[in-house]
Amino acid sequence: MISVEEALAKTLNLVSELEVESVPLQEAAGRVLACDIVATRSQPPFASSAMDGYAVKGVEVEPYAMFSVIGEAAAGHGFSGTVGAGEAVRIFTGAPIPKGADYVIIQEDVAVRGKLITLDSEIENHDYVRPLGDDFAAGDRIQAPRVLRAGDIALAASMNAPTLQVYRRPIVALIATGDELVIPGEVPGPDQIIASNSFGLKAMLEEAGAQVRLLPIARDTKPSLTQAFTLAKSADLVVTIGGASVGDHDLVADVAAELGMERAFYKIAMRPGKPLMAGRVLDVPMVGLPGNPVSSMVCGQIFLVPMIRKMMGHPDVLPRELTAKSTQDMPANGPRAHYMRAIISEDGITPLLRQDSGLLTVLSAANALLIRAPHAGKIDAGAIVSYLPI
Ligand SMILES: Nc1nc2c(c(=O)[nH]1)N[C@H]1C(S)=C(S)[C@@H](COP(=O)(O)OP(=O)(O)OC[C@H]3O[C@@H](n4cnc5c(N)ncnc54)[C@H](O)[C@@H]3O)O[C@H]1N2
Ligand code: MOO
């Protein structure tokens, strides 16, 4: 058995960044930018007004000064003339500052009579002019790599970049295995249960950015598993669920071996998740998850999500572990790293009472995985422990 850290390094080694593709701006959120975005224009492209008011010459601004209004400048429709001494142009937010003017008096500080304005006794000492290129100048860049958030998309749009270069999303083929499984909505036979892991994993991996194909459930026979692997050949990552352990019907390792699997490892010092395996099958990176529902979801979180992130070009692939005070005493841990389903709140972190890897109710109630290292000693309530939010 190898450690979680070794297994993580080996699973990450199986994959690399995928190719770069062009996507429309509207579809780029959450993707990782692969090439710098270069602004093809400055913003604003002209000095512009930050307020509704009157554009004048700044040197003429003083209490009770009077100006005659000679025209109007609105956003999208500038004033074509020049502002002279004693003159003002009615101006609105976003409009170009007219020639000759360099100051905007907000309309709240002005008394208007026909075409004449008089400044109040107190005037704000602020020109309300946004200079040309105040936000960015032509040639400025959004640097890659970068995970594109909503604010970045707005900035890229403003830079007039209609398509962006991003890493491709990985295609993941998910193969649930087991004669006992039927899909949700079907009527299970007396010895059957509903397949849950593939649906939970699909949600998890899609949230991480993957495109997930749910393959038909493979039966516990070699031909059925062989067919499933063959169907998955065009994916960037094949994930099997179940059949990973040592029982007579756990055939994933055997079938993968018959298909020439280059095995990276089998079995890790982790709880849940001991029978995890990984390698390449039919030249496709493959991870074999244990079937117990919580085991497969926890392994998905710890191993698959970082693999997806690496393929998508993320600069940081590993989740950042956080720390909190344990609200409970805890006994010494055994030889496997324990990822305990737990609840993090302002009081600290509390491991849930039942940790059996078949309990999806417990996983659903948890919002964190409390991490106990192999052979960690016993701790008292109040001790600092590591966790991952889930
Ligand atoms: N003698 C031993 N028995 C087991 C060991 C061991 O070391 N020695 N390891 C245990 C551990 S730990 C785990 S985890 C499980 C993993 O076994 P498999 O990967 O072979 O999984 P299965 O036997 O196929 O299934 C286990 C369990 O999970 C249910 N299952 C499977 N797939 C799904 C699915 N897609 N959706 C919902 N539930 C699923 C399945 O019905 C079983 O109940 O092995 C232990 N045994
Ligand atoms: O490791 Mo198993 O995954 O404990 O249930």
From TrEMBL:
EC number: 2.10.1.1
Functional pathway: Cofactor biosynthesis; molybdopterin biosynthesis
Keyword vocabulary terms for this entry: Magnesium, Metal-binding, Molybdenum, Molybdenum cofactor biosynthesis, Transferase
Cellular component terms (Gene Ontology): cytosol
Catalytic activity: adenylyl-molybdopterin + molybdate = Mo-molybdopterin + AMP + H(+)
Domain MoaB/Mog: 173-310
Cofactor: Mg(2+)
Zinc-finger listed as a keyword: no
A molecular-function term among this protein's GO annotations: metal ion binding
GO biological process, one term: Mo-molybdopterin cofactor biosynthetic process
Protein's UniProt keywords contain Lyase: no
Family matches, as Pfam families: MoCF_biosynth, MoeA_C, MoeA_N
SUPFAM superfamilies attached to this UniProt entry: MoeA C-terminal domain-like, MoeA N-terminal region -like, Molybdenum cofactor biosynthesis proteins
InterPro entries: MoaB/Mog-like_dom_sf, MoaB/Mog_dom, MoeA-like, MoeA_C_domain_IV, MoeA_C_domain_IV_sf, MoeA_linker/N, MoeA_linker/N_sf
CDD domains: MoeA
Similarity remark: Belongs to the MoeA family.
Known role: Catalyzes the insertion of molybdate into adenylated molybdopterin with the concomitant release of AMP.
Protein name: Molybdopterin molybdenumtransferase
Organism: Falsihalocynthiibacter arcticus
